[in-house]
Amino acid sequence: MRRVPFFVLAPALVLAAGCINPRAEAATAQALNDAANEIGGLKNDVAQLQTDLDSLRTVVAKQDSVITRIVATMPK
């Protein structure tokens, strides 16, 4: 039986180990795409929450000024 030299066998093993299953690569790409879409959706949700919070702060400030005016007109 003939022995294969190490310098021939080693690169062949490295190349064989370096081959990735195309299905696994596609699944990873799809998972990354899905994660990016979810992160984009979360960014939109956070932006909407910030808008709602700013709106609520405006309403509270208006009500606070109304309450202050009512209290100022009450007899002591």
Summarize the topology.
Elements: H1 6-18, H2 22-73
Key features?
76 residues; 2 helices; mainly alpha
Tell me about the largest β-sheet.
none
Share of helical residues: over 70%
Low-confidence stretches: none
Radius of gyration: 33 Å
The number of strands is 0
Order of helices and strands: HH
Shape: rod-shaped
Distance between the termini: 112 Å
Averaged pLDDT, please? Answer: 88
Query: What is the helix tally?
Result: 2
Helix/strand/pairing class, anyone?
Answer: mainly alpha
Estimated share of beta-strand residues: under 5%
Structure, explained:
- The chain is mainly α.
- The chain has a domain at 22-73.
- The protein has 2 helices and no strands.
- The chain is rod-shaped and about 110 Å long.
